[in-house]
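ok new one. same drill as before - structure tokens go in, u give me an amino acid for every spot. 455 of them this time. try not to just spam alanines like last time pls lmao
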């Protein structure tokens, strides 16, 4: 089926005409060729198969397509005078510092920008009454920050007034704001961009999407994802060792993935240690002959042990509110039901499954040694692995190229292995999820040999 994405929905907003020559000429046009500049008329196709293109039945120029990322010959902001700010919002994710560093180095070293600053503690830092002073960001300040986990700017959840945030940008003379954050942060960024547009202010707002769950659509794989599933894979390996060492050994590993099970799938595929992968996109039943508990008991009988990987958002429909313990979000949960940004906190499927497996094996008088592992915050806070670091710096470079060329209200992403510009409205319009009929889930089924359905 073709997607409903249209050329109009994929059009990126521009602040105005690009009149300045790009200072990158000395890097990319030095040998008498301009080949590295992006042709402003070129597009990256939305679809990737002939059948999808055929289904649309439109002329080539009318096919939905993305604006390509990359450096432009002519840019909107005068390099020497542009003033830039960076903010990180939402939960931690490997690679945040890599992106900050990539932005500062590209801005200062290649575009000649002399003033870059950082807002502290997320959007709260853009509201003066919160009392978080802005910090200067220089190439010296960001040196080696990629070796640290977390974000040197700090982060937060919680709503802030977009009018006040826009006032702050105006008062500080900011020309470009880079927002590094998840779906909520991108909605916040769009809110600021909308205020600036309404006030006819030529200030760019560019998002670099951060999602440990890889649940933002149209951007390819999100940064930090590879590091995250590598850490999760190490926990699964540990669970396998534990399970094989005991009579009736079961390793149960709960990994992140509130609405999308990508970390669970990739971590399980990384070393073929899992016997069952449970994700939010594929509902399962616990009881009955074809249910998960019976399947698990059979697997332990057949092979002596088993490893179960469960994404935090899996099986939520099995948990009644009375039985559910909310997933710990102790840093920022004002109530059991929602966090500071209004996101619903999930019931803890890991603890629930641990208890149900224990009582089920007990009732069947089948020996069980269960080890429950929850790598939790250890995944979010580690420094990025080299593959992610490379991706982060390239995303940051693409974001700077877009910003200096006067784009706004957009995020950078990858499509068909090319950097592209995606309007924020598109990036938050749907959630990227594992398709139960897609090839990733098929790989998981093949690797685990778990039943096609446990319903
Ligand atoms: P994570 O991946 O950790 O969920 P996130 O960016 O989605 O990242 P949130 O805590 O949901 O994290 O949001 C971060 C910031 O964006 C908060 O300051 C929040 O108030 C703001 N925000 C969230 N949703 C919206 C929205 N719909 N409109 C405007 N701002 C929002
Ligand atoms: Mg979010």
């Amino acid at each position: 089926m073709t997607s409903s994405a249209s050329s109009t929905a994929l059009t990126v907003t521009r602040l105005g005409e690009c009149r300045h020559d790009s200072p990158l000429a000395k890097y990319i046009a030095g040998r008498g060729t301009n080949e590295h500049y992006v042709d402003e008329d070129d597009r990256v196709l939305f679809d990737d198969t002939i059948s999808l293109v055929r289904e649309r039945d439109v002329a080539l120029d009318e096919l939905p397509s993305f604006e390509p990322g990359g450096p432009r010959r002519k840019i909107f902001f005068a390099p020497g005078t542009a003033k830039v700010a960076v903010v990180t919002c939402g939960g931690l994710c490997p690679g945040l510092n890599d992106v900050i560093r990539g932005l500062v180095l590209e801005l200062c070293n290649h575009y000649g920008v002399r003033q870059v600053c950082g807002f502290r503690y997320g959007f709260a830092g853009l509201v003066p009454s919160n009392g978080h002073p802005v910090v200067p960001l220089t190439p010296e300040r960001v040196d080696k920050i990629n070796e640290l986990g977390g974000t040197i700017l700090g982060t937060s959840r919680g709503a802030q007034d977009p009018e006040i945030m826009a006032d702050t940008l105006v008062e500080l003379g900011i020309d470009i704001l880079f927002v590094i954050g998840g779906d909520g942060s991108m909605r916040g960024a769009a809110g600021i961009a909308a205020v600036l547009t309404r006030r006819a202010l030529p200030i760019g707002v560019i998002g670099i999407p951060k999602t440990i769950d890889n649940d933002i659509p149209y951007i390819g794989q999100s940064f930090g994802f590879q590091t995250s599933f590598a850490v999760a894979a190490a926990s699964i390996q540990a669970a396998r060792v534990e399970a094989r060492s005991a009579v009736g050994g079961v390793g149960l590993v709960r990994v992140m993935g509130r609405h999308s099970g990508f970390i669970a799938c990739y971590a399980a595929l990384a070393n073929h240690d899992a016997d069952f992968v449970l994700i939010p996109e594929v509902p399962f039943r616990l009881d009955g002959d074809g249910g998960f508990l019976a399947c698990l008991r059979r697997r332990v009988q057949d092979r002596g042990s088993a490893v179960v990987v469960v994404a935090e958002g899996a099986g939520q429909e099995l948990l009644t509110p009375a039985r559910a313990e909310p997933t710990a979000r102790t840093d920022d949960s004002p109530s059991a039901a929602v966090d500071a940004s209004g996101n619903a906190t999930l019931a803890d499927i890991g603890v629930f499954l641990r208890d149900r497996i224990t009582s089920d094996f007990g009732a069947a008088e089948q020996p069980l040694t269960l080890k429950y592992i929850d790598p939790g915050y250890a995944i979010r806070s580690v420094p990025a692995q080299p593959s992610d670091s490379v991706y982060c710096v390239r995303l940051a470079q693409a974001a700077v190229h877009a910003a200096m060329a006067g784009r706004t209200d957009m995020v950078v992403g990858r499509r068909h292995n090319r950097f592209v510009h995606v309007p924020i409205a598109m990036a938050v319009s749907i959630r990227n999820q594992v398709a139960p009929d897609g090839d990733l889930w098929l790989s998981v089924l093949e690797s685990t040999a778990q039943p096609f359905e446990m319903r």
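Residues 13-222+384-415 form a domain with the Rossmann fold fold (CATH 3.40.50.450). and btw The chain has two domains: 13-222+384-415, 226-379+436-454.
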